[in-house]
Sequence to fold (1183 residues):
Amino acid sequence: MSFPILTVTAAVPAVGAVVTAAVPAARRSAARLTALAFSVATLVLALVTMARFDTGGARYQFTETHTWVKNFGLHYDLGVDGIGVVMVALTALLIPFVMLAGWHDADPLEDVNPNRRWRPTQGFFALILLVEAMVVLSFEATDVFLFYIFFEAMLIPMYFLIGGFGDRAHPGGEEEAARQRSYAAVKFLLYNLAGGLIMLAAVIALYAATAKQLGTGTFSLQEILDARAAGRLHLVTSTERWIFLGFFFAFAVKAPLWPLHTWLPNAMGESTAPVAVLITAVVDKVGTFAMLRFCLQLFPEASKWATPVILVLAVISIIYGALLAVGQRDIKRLIAYASVSHFGFIILGIFAMTSQGQSGATLYMVNHGISTAALMLVAGFLISRRGSRLIADFGGVQKVAPVLAGTFLVGGLATLSLPGLAPFVSEFLVLVGTFSRYPVLGIIATLGIVLAALYVLVLYQRTMTGPVKAGVEGLSDLKARELLVVAPLIALLLFLGVYPKPVTDIVNPSVGHTLSDVHKTDPKPALEAKK
Amino acid sequence: MDTLIGLLVAAPLLGAGILLTGGRRLDRAGHLLGTLLALTSFVLAAVLFADMLGKDTGRRTLTSHLFTWVPVDGFQAQVGFQLDQLSMTFVLLITGVGTLIHIYSIGYMEHDERRRRFFGYLNLFLAAMLLLVLADNYFLLYAGWEGVGLASYLLIGFWQHKPSAATAAKKAFLVNRVGDIGLSVAIMLLFTTFGSFAFSDVFPKVGQASATQHATVTGIGFMLLLAACGKSAQVPLQSWLGDAMEGPTPVSALIHAATMVTAGVYLITRSGAIFNAAPDAQTAVVTVGAVTLIFGAIVGCAKDDIKKALAGSTMSQIGYMIMAAGLGPIGYVFAIMHLVTHGFFKAGLFLGAGSVMHGMNDEVDMRKFGGLRKYMPITFVTFGLGYLAIIGFPGLSGFFSKDKIIEAAFAKGGTEGWILGTCALIGAAITAFYMTRVMLMTFFGEERWKDGRTATASPDEPSAEPAAAHSAHGAPHPHESPSSMTIPMIILAFGSVFAGGLFSINSAFVKWLEPVTGHSEGDSPVSTGTVTAGTMVVLVLGVLVAWLMYGRRPVPAVAPKGSLLTRAARRDLLQDDFNHVVLVRGGEHLTRSLVYLDHSLVDGVVNGTAASVGGLSGRLRRLQNGYVRSYAVSMLGGTAVVVAATLLMRAV
Fold:
């Protein structure tokens, strides 16, 4: 048996969480460094996996298969295709930056606390590692039930991260902040649990359907696909559609797709910037990823049946999210709505069912992760300096903190998909992939590029330019630790903007597999089609 | 040789990278480094030009493929360059004028503490603009296209502490983004029609398009025109250019006169194969050009701000170029020829305006100038030569290039030819008028800046040009600018005088570009001599009227109320007011009501549905009362029970 690198990649942060949590209360920096070390180790493992991934090889690689509960058909099946390996790498990449950015976010406000077991810093970092482990396992699981377990389990640490370590800067004061925080945390939990419960029903229905047709029920993606290919499994159309909807609903809550998006602005607005990044750049990606892996592969016919509605919802998300972002007064909520818009692009690309659309959507997940991390983390530095997240409380920051303003602008330009920065490539691919099959939707989605410019540049203008506002005068520029967070992210945005080949090479074959699952081929150019 | 093409772009890009990340250590030498790298690019361009001249006309195109940018099934975007005569012309103009303006900026920005960053942005602009004209496919061109937009944004808003500058920068970027939709959609249409967006794949195939695909080709033409309207400030996307004058004057000269704003002309000329196959799109192009050339000229007549008057003029002159490009093979060559001569004289005029402002405490209101010729002789002479060139004084550059466009407009033939030709002639008359007005108000007449009347700049537009920071406030003491500023002006004046003549000897310019753009004479209903004579008549008329209004009579220091048209023209013919009422106000209402709806309706409906389905509303109310933790735990517990129960049931 070969080295179970996928299990290890998930186990390292899980173990790290335990170790970090066990660090004594007084040794806060030891806890931070421990957590960081484990997250870096995870990153190394993820990069090794990515480097060793054979782009010409089998669809799923580094597979591990163990029967877990035999008469229940439950397996511990792990495996990654090109899309999965890239998503694991993205997660592992972002976590160290999230940690560095939130270095002091969880420190108790007073040095002395009568309760000696009070260890918020340890808890904060342990929870982040726990989320990482769950997310990585969700990207790796090729057993539907196994996936479901991690998909749901990650809600618990996320709930505590939002509710327990929220943003201390609230326009309504500390008490209001606490109230809003718990509201946001519960809303997050309820939405996602509701999605999860519906998915659970669908998972069980899928099991029952397989049990009926195959004799023994199974959750294994591979077994189901094999049985279908061999003609032994054929879901009744209506059954397939219902089960598909159950899965899709859960993923659409998490992604989030309009009109299920309203938990996101609350959650991102009330949590600290690093946790907000964890939500939108890491956890939410499981939703869009799962659409590619489970919806399209398991239910190709139902996916095609639902495509028109999903595409329209995606386009609404794009435009609606962007318009809402324009109307926000709160920096973090603005970025949250921008993410709603961006998730619309990702889902559009997935369901356009073209090579460009799906490769673009996968690349979009990566690029959105990096660009939102850059923008949101700098915004977090800014907000914590001023003690306010209202746009109106800022103005003229570039005068007092030019480096902060500059990096914020780069993050913003990435968000509006400027060529040369990574998100441009993925956004254009999604648009062209959509346009080639659905020209009208493609053109409407293209309007999003103007709106993105609007919300980014208005945000920049109001916060960074103009005369220096009262309360902004004394703000310091980025510190070394903060630069260490931002500079590599910007470098990555530039690199992937100019040379996305390392990622697309891994992703392309998997997209080809997914497209053949749904029996879709790219439309031919009009000129060739005639011949 | 072909590896040099990449270096052309790389040199200024390197400069931008170093200057923008280098930090304060580079403050002392940054501007020199930036200028040196711009010069490097120019020298490389000259070497490539010499090499190109040594080759046969048919084999002058150089290509260089660097790497695959976006490799996705079916969609292969390359980073590859193509240097032909058309690109070469632009490269020489961009690097040549670019280097001169770097040199000028050394003096002009001397007292700005952020000078290093300014040069970084200028270098960034050069790199992006060179990328735009050297790209061998539309996708890479798009990168350059947005890159110059970014540089323009950064430079218009260079004095970010001025709210007006920040607003103008944002506006320019947004209006350009609207145009960018055109370029995006054009690329998508090219991809779905031809399976490629590389020039070498698309252009030969345009002819093979069937009837239905002809409609698509026309659509591509319209989309490219939309893009061109944005970047080249053509009606209806012209509103940003006047505001862009908030940027430092060298920026106005380089980006908003000589180079970037001509990118639309480049795009249309480069896409000649597409437009030649889409007559309807061509009609749209000439219409936009003709409307803009009149529109810009009228706006130019009413502005008292010297830079805004010149901006109106730029719009108008680019209108000539766009119109010429829309004429097809009759006009492509002359569009580019006018573009080059305009690059010289308009850059010169802007630098002259900057020099005047430099000596006048950054005053921009021409009503507070007057009689300056005695105080700044070099500026006066170089500006004057630019003036003569732009109005088309016989023998100077503008005469040759503009006259050719007017001839070509008539040569279009039919009613269309007459309409376009007449528009061009009217435009020429108005050009003579407003430029004479600028000349008279600035350099002749009473010295209206004396008596401390211009002690400070107009209060509603606080000036921030740093050049004045060192001179004491109070009445200005007009003086000539330092040589780092005057030398570029002198060089540009030479171009303004001689370039047109040189290009016309033996039809040199036509022969140079013809292998790329194609050329045909057309057949004009009026003879060349008649056109030239007509041009002369309208020229004299325009100058005469201006002299009667601004030369013979003293110019009032406070603007008179003016006619309805004048007042409208001062407000850019009310287009901004329209934008404000319809787009800005309407948009604000839309977003505000959506924010409200999202909070009350969408959130409410989703929560409500969930509540009615799962009976969650009572619990939601309870969580407001502080049972949050207990609720969450019970919920999680519930899930766990459900999962366990299912597992058990299945297991037995």
Notes: Residues 581-651 of chain B form one domain.
